Amino acid sequence: xxxxxxxxxxxxxxxxxxxxxxxxxxxxxxxxxxxxxxxxxxxxxxxxxxxxxxxxxxxxxxxxxxxxxxxxxxxxxxxxxxxxxxxxxxxxxx
Length: 94
Hints:
Blueprint: E1 2-6, H1 14-21, E2 29-34, E3 41-48, H2 52-62, E4 66-67, E5 70-71, E6 73-76
């Protein structure tokens, strides 16, 4: 199951996130999203846990918990929506 984590302190890195969630089961990936120009955290992350029951327990128990002096928001990640482009990528206005 993919998990979305928001309201992260900028000091929280992927390792700290993995450690915070690992008490609930195996973490296959933990990725704090960073700004591509500055490299600074954007304040949210995605985790992947292979066991759905463990992932759901982590969501239920860690939503609202403190990490890096902030109350984090933890939810199941929603699939990324495709963007619709009216211009068919032609670069023109019409």
